[in-house]
Amino acid sequence: MDVKLTINGEEKSASVPPETTLLRLLREEFNLTGAKIGCDVGDCGACTVIVDGIATNSCLMLAGQVQGRSIETIEGLANMDDYHPLQKNFEDLGSLQCGFCGPGIILSAKQLLDDNPDPNKEEIQDALAGNLCRCTGYTKIVEAVADAAREMRGNRKAA
Amino acid sequence: MKQKGKGIGCMWYPIGFTVAANPSAATVKVNEDGTATLLTGTVETGQGSLTVLGQIAAEELGISTDDVHVVSADTDTTPMDTGAIASRTTYVTGNAIKLAAEKAKEILFEVAAPMLNVKPSQLEAVDRKVQVKGFPQRNLPISEVALQAQVVQGRPSIGSASFNPPTVDMDPETGQGKPFSTYVYATQIAEVEVDDETGQVDVLYMSAAHDCGTAINPMLVEGQIQGGISMGVGFALQEEILFDEKGVQINPNLTNYIMPTSLDMPEIDVDIVENFDPTGPFGAKGVGEPTAVPTAAAICNAIFDAVGVRVTSLPATAEKVLKLIKEKRANENKQLAPAE
Amino acid sequence: MDENVKTAEREVTLERLREIDDDLRLPAVPEQVSYPIETLIPEARTQTPAVGQRASRPDGRLHGLGQTKYIDDLSFPGMIHAKIKRAGISKARVKNIDVSEAEKMPGVMATLVGSEIPVNSFGPSYQDQPVMVNGTVFHAGDPVAAVAATTEQLALDALDKIKIDYEPLEAVYDPIEAMKDNAPQVHEGESNIYSSKVIQKGDVEQGFEESHRIYENTFSTQMVEHVPMEPHASIADWDGNGRVTLHSSLGRITLGRADIARTLNMPINRIRIIATVVGGNFGGKNEITTEPILALLSKKTGRPVKGVYTREDEFMSSTTRHPFIMDYKTGMSKDGKILARKVRLVCDGGAYCSWSETTLGKACILSAGPYNIENLYVEAYAVYTNKTMTGAMRGFGAPQVCFAYESQMDDMAHDLGIDPLDIRRMNAFHEGSASPTGQVLESVVVRDSLEMAAERFGWQDWKK
Question: What's the CA gap between C404 and C376, in Å, rounded?
Fold first, then answer.
């Protein structure tokens, strides 16, 4: 089965068996290993990527379902000039420990901030409710998302 | 109706293995520009140990954290290490690294002493300089000393060492002995809200005061405490592996094994208790496991304060708490009845 | 340029290419792997002195960028995949195993069973745990057979084709039942109690005599799992000199190497274990699991073999936290001092010893709490049952006993009419206190931690 899609702004295509999930497509065909296999059944959120603007468990989507769609993965957040404010704030606050849940959580947070530039603490916790983390207790993650939101609002005003 | 309660959990926890040898070895190499490389056999499992160990080596050599590159976790190239277990890494591996860095530093001092016209024992390494104790104006940049050592004198600055905590084995009949070199202490206090109609327990707030000796990196200590509390909340209220009558697990998946999400976390205030343990590297002890120890106790004591029921088996699920509340009411009614 | 050579205008754009061929397979452009070029070093990392700095982690930056390579993110040329078949029955004798159907499947490169492992036992205290089942199954997650195939899906499909004949045997699941004389034996031996420890100090009976009131409670805790976000994963690969390299999510590589040397009967210097970053350990990745299996499959097939636990494997076949049953009997003076304490701990040791001895030892020492108690008697037992093996998990028995002694403390405080904070202040260790094992404690700050936490919480003024 052929599939053509846009990943991080670039058009890509692949030829894969029909039962291939989006998660395996990203990891095995395109070597984008940022999305992780935590449970493979949609419980843990470690495979979260953004599909047409919505944070989604990529292990629950088939490759065929993303034909023609636009995917954002963790690998697309930074560019040659700078990191994304989420990545910077996560680093500054020590928000990630083992880091396995990191890409999924950052992308869930990105969707939140793209839709709601000024979330309160409950809204942040709610947006991350589908991403399990065993190491950090979520506290520094929520703080970092709030800091990143503030920074992004400041950048927008300056721009 | 929702009832609030507060509860204390207080604990002590040892560092290292019970009596048994649990050594760590390390090698520190100072490069010819004054930066350094640290070789350690420990494995980074997320707790940030490599950063902390780098800070210990940097402190001994008087350079900054970023000046030390940490290489780990390869049995061919890094020295042996008993592993990231029993909260021992900062204490045992840290001590090994401090000793190794001291040896590397000795070489630098022996090279710098004639350059500064003093004896090696008069020197100290501070702020990227090798300087004379009590007269810091006489100093050399560590980069110059390291270059001189390796390239001119032919004495590269390198040191290896190992450390094992001293213990005394326990008497087989009475258990008396000195099983651990050091212990850490902590208290966590929980505020919970119990819905006495459903038994649902919400942990609203926790204040955690943890002793870890010197906090080499306070940010990482906070991370460990927050993570430990999340495991404690799960242990107290949610998590349980269930078996059927044939000994096969019923819920071996994350759909039915309930563990804390971002919505389950309380507000946490962390305090690090000021302490210095002379047997630890720069006074440090450890903190990895102790953080998950008193949480369940504090939560269950808070439930007792809130609704007067004592949970004696974990987890304190809503069903269990509600059942205890109903039993308590039934008992109270029975006691009232004779008066009527 | 030679004037006799005629060239054409080369302006073939992507759009033009698409017009030519609608089904054009667009080439995979290699992903950008390092950026930004000018990196910013956080200030705390450049400060001296280094101790006490809130230094950020270099691996933290890589995690946020998605650049960290965990074991499952690595791949090697020619790599194949292995999966493991679990028993699914908690106690049984294996009458026979038939892997022939699995081996015939296209894409399946090798299978492995327990009898092919040179030394099929390991364990940190007792070597009672087989790498793969050795004729008898002891818990439902026991590995019975393994398959290596060109894709993970093929390996999983092949597992279904392996036929195993079991003769179910009598099993026991409750640790108290298992302690009884007539209980079915989990392993060969006279008793299911495989480890016991005692600590005694002073004279408990005397202490109880002098007590104003005696309190007796029983507490129990459940089996929980570490649930590291990264499942166990390893890759095994051999070179022409008979050296095996294992990339593994182990937290203890020196011990792992020693265990591989033992189970594969090899000299230690022919084994290399590399751990990259582990995605969470908490005690569950402190011993070998699939490494010898993958090493042997790799040897059989001449290819690197990767084996990753499914999330179900994580629950059923990796170690868990010991459920404890704890009996506490404490004698108190009228004003709230602990005069005597007697503790019995029964620890559900699961199917194999694993870290139970260590857990038992630690729990025993910690069970009295951070309190000055002159008269103490603790006895602890680890018992085999036919359930998932219990091993090291963050705390080694401490969270369980802390739940017990702190719960009883509040019950006693309530009964005696003493504030929970005060009763702890009265009894807590201080500098120079003697521990349950007679050790003189130094650098003791229990009271400081109580005061700090209470003040931060606002204990005195807190209202419901």
Answer: 16
Contact C253 B127 (CB under 8 A): no
Which of these three, A76, A106, A130, is where a domain ends?
A: A76
Q: Is the pLDDT of residue C33 over 80?
A: no
* DSSP per-residue codes, C153-218: HHHHHHHHT-EEEEEE------HHHHHSTTSPPSSSSS-SEEEEEEEEES-HHHHHHT-SEEEEEE
Cross-chain residue pair A139–B268, CB shorter than 8 Å? yes
Are C420 and B7 in contact by the 8 Å Cβ rule? The answer is: yes
Query: Residues of B with CB below 8 A from C47's CB?
Result: 64-65
| CB crowding B36-54: b at 16 or more within 10 Å, else e | bbbbbbbbbbbbbbbbbbb
Touching subunits for chain B (3+ Cβ pairs under 8 A)? A, C
Range of the domain at C249: 233-317
- CATH fold group of domain B2-14+182-334: Aldehyde Oxidoreductase; domain 4 (3.30.365)
pLDDT in tens, chain B (340 residues): 999 999 999 999 999 999 999 999 999 999 999 999 999 999 998 999 999 999 999 999 999 999 999 999 999 999 999 998 888 999 999 999 999 999 999 999 999 999 999 999 999 999 999 999 999 999 999 999 999 999 999 999 999 999 999 999 999 999 999 999 999 999 999 999 999 999 999 999 999 999 999 999 999 999 999 999 999 999 999 999 999 999 999 999 999 999 999 999 999 999 999 999 999 999 999 999 999 999 999 999 999 999 999 999 999 999 999 999 999 999 988 887 665 4
Residue of B nearest to A124 (CA): B262
Structural domain includes residue C196: yes
Residue C58: what pLDDT? 87
Query: What order do you get walking across the sheet with C244-248 strand by strand?
Result: C108-113, C143-149, C80-86, C305-308, C233-238, C244-248, C271-274
For B24-162, which CATH class?
alpha beta
User: How many Cβ atoms from other residues are within 10 Å of residue B283's Cβ?
Assistant: 18
Same domain membership, residue A57 and residue A7: yes
Using CA coordinates, name the residue in chain A closest to B234.
A134
Instruction: Considering only the beta carbons, identify the residue of B9, B76, B81 that sits closest to C406.
Output: B9
List the catalytic residue out of B193, B240, B289, B332: B289
Structure tokens at A25: 């497509």
Tell me the per-residue pLDDT of C449-463, one tens digit each, with 9 for 90 and over.
Answer: 999 999 999 999 998
pTM for this entry: 0.94
C364: its two tokens: 């025993």
**Mean pLDDT, chain C, as a whole number?**
92
* B289 noted as active-site residue: yes
Distance separating alpha carbons of residues B188 and B10, to the nearest angstrom: 6
- CATH number of the domain at A46, please: 3.10.20.30
User: What is the total count of domains within chain C?
Assistant: 3
Region of A24 please: left (phi>0), alpha (psi -120 to 50) or beta.
alpha
Read off the amino acid at residue C234: S
**Which residues in chain A are contacts of C56 at CB distance < 8 A?**
91-92, 94
Q: What CATH number is associated with residue A154?
A: 1.10.150.120
Asked if residue B179 lies in contact with residue C439, where contact means CB atoms within 8 angstroms, the answer is yes
Selecting from C364, C420, C443 the residue whose C-beta is nearest the C-beta of B301 gives C420
In terms of domains, do C196 and C297 share one?
no
Long-range contacts of B119-123 (CB under 8 A, 24+ apart): none
Q: Where does a domain end: A12, A44, A76?
A: A76
- Across the interface, which of A39, A97, A124 has its CB nearest the CB of B223? A97
Q: From CA C252, how far away is CA B80, in angstroms rounded? A: 10
With contacts defined as CB-CB under 8 Å, which chain B residues touch A97?
A: 46-48, 223, 227
Contacts of A62 (CB under 8 A, 6+ apart): A18, A19, A20, A21, A22
Number of domains in chain A: 2
